[in-house]
């Protein structure tokens, strides 16, 4: 299983096959992923614990456990945890290319 440690938390690849990948993403309190987009994949996020602040283009919303969001290919998006508790979600990626290098960053508090 692929695991990626990041400054905001970590991800674990749960399942991967042709055209899709499933990850468990955990974001530490105060963690904030970069504002980014993907050229080759869409994503569907389902919050499983905690509360996620999600930005998709010009829309910002808070999602609690059991709620979900769809991120179309090319959409600028960001995931944040503004709470004092760990937040976790399941991410389903769909596309012909699912590499970690399919990220265009617009803003990143960690300087990546």
Task: Describe what this molecule looks like in 3D.
This protein has 112 residues and is mainly β. Helices cover 0% and strands 59% of the residues. The chain has strands at 3-6, 9-17, 20-27, 35-37, 41-49, 51-56, 59-64, 68-71, 77-80, 87-95, 104-107. The strands form three sheets. Strands 1-2-3-10-5-8 form a six-stranded antiparallel β-sheet, with no helix packed on it. It is globular and about 35 Å long. The chain starts with a strand and ends in a 5-residue tail after the last strand.
Quick take:
With 112 residues, this protein is mainly beta.
**Radius of gyration in whole Å, from Cα?**
13 Å
Structural class call reads mainly beta
Largest sheet: 6 strands, antiparallel
Distance between the termini: 24 Å
In N-to-C order, the SSE pattern is: EEEEEEEEEEE
Q: Roughly what percent helix?
A: under 10%
Which regions are unreliable across 5 or more consecutive residues at pLDDT < 50? none
The spatial strand order of the largest sheet comes to 1-2-3-10-5-8
Count up the helices. Answer: 0
Q: What is the tally of beta strands?
A: 11
Percent of residues in β-strands? over 45%
General shape? globular
| Mean pLDDT reading | 96
